[in-house]
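Bug #77: duplicate submission created two jobs. Keeping one. Sequence:
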Amino acid sequence: MTKRFLFILVLLIPIAVFCQNGTIKGFEYHPRTNVTGFTQTQIDTFISKCNLEIYRLRDGRTTLEFDNGFDIVLLSANELAHLGLIPDGSSYPAAYPAHYQIPVFHLTPQGWVMAAYSSVNGAKYKGR
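Kept job's structure:
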């Protein structure tokens, strides 16, 4: 009986290890009409390597628009804390500053994420 139990246990260990390989992402992928040049797997891989934490809010989800034809919705910091991905979400901002506009993003074929900020009328650039 003990040998059978050990045999069954040994067979179940690889299944348990395989189930733990799944990763929890801190974002959701939402394709729009035409996603150009990328598969969902490529987008997930590239975005997972990118640091978009400055756009994450404490309680609300943030939608980042990519001109490649998809959106990335960042989960809130409190959601990540609930999932165990971060220890605490209280250090994240509750809201963006007044008049702040989230940039439009672009994913390059090399996997780089670029942000295009819109210009602000009346803003003065102060050079060195």
